[in-house]
Amino acid sequence: MKKSSIIGVLILCFAFWGKAQVRNEIRVPDPEGYRTLKCDFHIHTVFSDGLVWPTVRVDEAYREGLDAIALTEHLEYRPHRQDIIASHNRSYEIAEKTARNNQVILIRGSEITRPMAPGHFNAIFLSDCDALELPMIGTSDIHQPIQTDIDFARGQHRTMTFVFVRERSAEGIREALLHRRTAVYMDEKVIAEEQWLKELFEKSIDIEDIKRNEKSIVITLKNNSDLTFHLKKTRHNPGLVYFREYTIQPQCRHRIEIRLENNIQGGDINFEITNLYAAPNKGLTYSYKV
Ligand SMILES: [Zn+2]
C-alpha cells in the first residue's frame, strides 16, 4: 500500500514535470504572404564543445519561443571525445524525438573549424558562384546552458534569425534561406533588407486614433510586437513640431503629439528608426503623412 502511494506520487511529479514547460512566444509580425519563424542555426552540445545534452537544447528553444534550431557540432573539435564516442549525426538523432514532440523544427548541421583565424567558412549547394549572395543569419553559438548567457528576467533574448517562410517546416526554412527572406534579431537591433524592416515596423504598429485641431495632431498608437523602435527625427517642414527622439516600447500604447505652427495643416513626419538596420550604421528612414 505504502509502496504504491509512493509510486503514485512519483507519477504525479513526472506528469507535472512534463507539463511544466512554459513557452514564451516572441511576438513579431508576419510579412504579407509569409510566416515569421524564430530560428537559431548555431548551437553546441556535449557532442562537440558545448556543456549540455541535445534534448536540453530543444527544451530551451521551446521555452524561449523558437520555431527551429540546428545543432552545429564541430567536426574536428570534440573535447569530450574521451567520454562521448559517437558519430557526427548523434546529437541530431538524440534531439529528434523531443523536437518532434515539441514541434521544434530540427535542422541537421555541422561546423567546420580550422585553428587559424578566421577559420573556414563553407557554403554548399551553390549553382552559380557569381551569384553568391548569402542570407543574413544571426545565431547564438551557445555552449553553456542558455540561462547562463541570457538573463530572461531582464527581457533579454538570444541572437536569432527571423525566417519568413511559406510553410512551417524544415523545407519551408530551406526555401526561405535560399531566397534570402531573413532578418537578424540581436538585442534591440533588427538587421535585414529594407522591405522586411518596413513591413515589420508597419505590422507591429496599430494606429488607433488621430485627433486634430488647428494647433496640433495627437496620434494614439499601439505596438503589438515584442520589438522596440527607436525613432529619431530627420529633415522635415519646420512648421511640424514633434519629438527629437522617441522610443516605442514593445506591447505598449503611446500618444505622440505633433504641434502645427505657421498655419500649416499637416505634412510629413520624417524620422529614422535607428535600431532597424538596412545598411551598416544606417537606420531605416521612414515618413508618415499627417
Ligand atoms: Zn560554434
From TrEMBL:
Looking at the record, the residues that make up the Polymerase/histidinol phosphatase N-terminal domain are 39-116
Q: Which InterPro entries match?
A: DUF5001 (IPR032165), PHP_domain (IPR052018), Pol/His_phosphatase_N (IPR003141), Pol/histidinol_Pase-like (IPR016195)
- Any Pfam family matching the protein: DUF5001
Please name the GO terms that the record assigns under molecular function: 5'-3' DNA exonuclease activity; 5'-3' RNA exonuclease activity
- Name listed for the protein in its UniProt record: Histidinol-phosphatase
State the species of origin: Odoribacter splanchnicus
